[in-house]
């Protein structure tokens, strides 16, 4: 299947975005040979800076296979940004969809048309304190198993040194280097033609993220943690620790009336938090 033409809007976006990227970031890009020359495929990329979508798009634009990113559908509604998003073929995600597969239908269609869809499987900037990939969502695995397309793992590092996660000001000097390492396709054949249960999708996602993490280890020259950072489990552990450290109160405060008065909130609000912790 032939590759899609880059088109006017993507070239316009490149004209706008590439000059500042060239000025701000040196480039160390490897693994270009693993980007398929033709046909649809997915790239699974780690995410550690608000700058890295632009830096990574620059890398892949230079391969001739422009990425179609998934983005919340509100960005497509109007104005110049909406026009660029639509014109460059970015893919709206309707998160309110009750059908998980339908939420990614546009991504599936794009792959089947022979395009590249770039996934940030983590769904947002990593919460790992050392910026290793954290636990991921299953969207990339879902599309990969539905289409049986190649999944190219990609690790990147360096945009986070220009603009750390959630920082308000970039660290421009000294000039930073954007490192990218693309690897060979992830072998997901053992998951094909099986019911896409949550357990299957989770396992396939873990295989994809293990490949991305291994590439990032190579880029950083360090070993990643044995288990990826899981924000949900961390939140649960923090709540439990806070509950254990909370004073039990005096004997006179054990009645429901006194508890509500001392805390300054109704009894229903006091028990609501505990109920959330048990979910």
TrEMBL record:
<feature type="domain" description="Phospholipid/glycerol acyltransferase">
    <location>
        <begin position="41"/>
        <end position="159"/>
    </location>
</feature>
<dbReference type="Pfam" id="PF01553">
    <property type="entry name" value="Acyltransferase"/>
</dbReference>
<protein>
    <submittedName>
        <fullName>Lysophospholipid acyltransferase family protein</fullName>
    </submittedName>
</protein>
<feature type="region of interest" description="Disordered">
    <location>
        <begin position="226"/>
        <end position="279"/>
    </location>
</feature>
<dbReference type="GO" id="GO:0016746">
    <property type="term" value="F:acyltransferase activity"/>
</dbReference>
<dbReference type="InterPro" id="IPR002123">
    <property type="entry name" value="Plipid/glycerol_acylTrfase"/>
</dbReference>
<keyword id="KW-0012">Acyltransferase</keyword>
<keyword id="KW-0808">Transferase</keyword>
